[in-house]
Amino acid sequence: MWTQRVFSLKPRPRGFHLITEEVLRQLPELSDYSVGMLNLFIKHTSASLTINENADPSVRQDFEAFFNQTVKENEPYYTHTDEGSDDMPAHLKGSLLGFSLQIPITAGRLNLGIWQGIYLCEHRNHGGARQLVATLYGEK
Amino acid sequence: MWTQRVFSLKPRPRGFHLITEEVLRQLPELSDYSVGMLNLFIKHTSASLTINENADPSVRQDFEAFFNQTVKENEPYYTHTDEGSDDMPAHLKGSLLGFSLQIPITAGRLNLGIWQGIYLCEHRNHGGARQLVATLYGEK
Amino acid sequence: MWTQRVFSLKPRPRGFHLITEEVLRQLPELSDYSVGMLNLFIKHTSASLTINENADPSVRQDFEAFFNQTVKENEPYYTHTDEGSDDMPAHLKGSLLGFSLQIPITAGRLNLGIWQGIYLCEHRNHGGARQLVATLYGEK
After folding, report:
1. Distance between CA atoms of A117 and A16, rounded to whole angstroms?
2. CATH of the domain at B23
3. In chain C, how many domains are there?
4. First to last CA, chain A
5. Angstrom distance (rounded) from CA A91 to CA A73
6. Which residues of A touch C36 (CB under 8 A)?
7. CA–CA gap between residue C63 and residue A78 (Å, rounded)
8. Which of A37, A105, B35, B102 has a Cα-to-Cα distance from C83 of 20 to 30 A?
């Protein structure tokens, strides 16, 4: 059994954002799957997806600070600079974090840990509405 | 054909640990799959999963040293500090390494390279027994 | 429906290389899948796979520079040094970027974003021909 849906997230500022509920609203069929997988894929190279703590917003704030420290803008060795100082770091952060998630489904629900949430990692200053492909597959 | 199992790993100290055999012991059904996938998912935000060299323990020792250098404790810009100095770095290391693995199955076995093993990346000082979801799917 | 193929990429020098077309040439069955997933898995611990910008080669050049800056050779704390100064950094870069990709299939094609391409990340100076496992699964 397969369900696939392409949809856009609402635009968000640069930073790390909890999107678990916004994703689940797109997937009412989830409850039909007794066992399966959700693949969540972002169709971009300057925004990415990860999982992390779903409770305290300070975690997401520290993610933004850490990644800005670790993948700096305006490194003298960057050659891909035409699209702005936030562009090349965005590509690098994207590949460090990854562009897809695979989350198991158990008894009609995502089998996430109690503290796990889905993050949109928006690495551009003005990234706009990001497009996702959600693919559910498994057994009724 | 689907098989799904939730189980706990034995507790391990902070560091990188080879868990291929401990995982395989939980999955006797693997040999029934002629072609398929194993998804291994960790239900935490401060421990993660990766693949790397399965032979020389010095690789895992250098992983711990590298990640401690690269994702430092007590960065002045951290705001999420209530759960100890190893907590925020653990969240960051987790997202850098990732919380799930997708490994192909061929003729009843994981189709890993000869040097590849599955690592538990324990980022907390006292992480305890970590919970995994293993999902096998494919054809008999 | 499942299709699985093991194949070698042509050898490439250290650096980041766009391999989308070379991978697709191995997978003529892709067009038979109305909905599904491609899992691409690299059977090594010193070369990895990621997705990033498919247009401007300067992005790939900056990836090589960034990862060389961030995961240095000859760190004094490395203990795994017998296989050359490029070896331990290669293992670390591999785990940071990851060893598999999961890409959704829609209407017989990979549902990649318009700017997304598949990168081989060759972290060794002389890595040779890298072996991939491509697994397609889904519905006709």
Report:
1. 11
2. 2.60.120.460
3. 1
4. 7
5. 11
6. 2
7. 9
8. B102
Longest CA–CA separation in chain C, Å? 54
With the C-alpha atoms ordered B61, B65, B70, B76, is the resulting torsion angle positive or negative?
A: positive
- Burial state string for B61-92 with b = 16 or more CB within 10 A and e = fewer than 16: bbbbbbbbebbeeebeebebeeeeebbbbbbb
Which structural domain, as residue segments, surrounds residue B37? 2-139
Q: What is the pLDDT along chain C (140 residues), one digit of tens a residue?
A: 999 999 999 999 999 999 999 999 999 999 999 999 999 999 999 999 999 999 999 999 999 999 999 999 999 999 999 999 999 999 999 999 999 999 999 999 999 999 999 999 999 999 999 999 999 999 99
Q: Which residues contact B21 (CB under 8 A, 6 or more apart)?
A: none
Residue type, B24: L
CA–CA distance, B25 with C110 (Å, rounded to integer): 35
Q: Amino acid letter at B137?
A: Y
d(CA A68, CA B129): 33
Cβ pair A79:C62 closer than 8 A: yes
Residues of C at the B interface (Cβ-Cβ below 8 Å)?
2, 4, 6, 39, 41-45, 70-71, 75, 77-80, 88, 91-92, 94-96, 98-100, 102, 131, 133, 135, 137
One-letter amino acid for residue B83 of the chain: E
Number of other residues whose CB lies within 10 A of the CB of residue C3: 18
CA-to-CA distance for A12 and C29, rounded, in angstroms? 38
Query: Which helix (DSSP H) or strand (DSSP E) does residue B102 occupy?
Result: strand B100-106
Residue with tokens 């559910």: A136
| Radius of gyration from C-alpha coordinates of chain A | 16
Radius of gyration of chain B (CA): 16
Helix (H) or strand (E) holding B24: helix B20-24
Residues 6+ apart with CB under 8 A from C94: B52, C44, C45, C46, C47, C48, C121, C123
- Calpha distance B11→B4 (Å, rounded): 22
Mutate: best of C3, C41, C75, C132, partner B, most B CBs <10 A? C41
Residue among A58, A70, A138 whose CB faces B80 most closely: A58
Say how far apart CA C109 and CA C136 lie, in whole Å. Answer: 11
Cβ density class A77-90: b for 16+ within 10 Å, e for less: ebebeeeeebbbbb
| Locus of tokens 């090589």 | C64
- Residue that is written with structure tokens 């008999």 in the block: B140
ipTM of the complex: 0.98
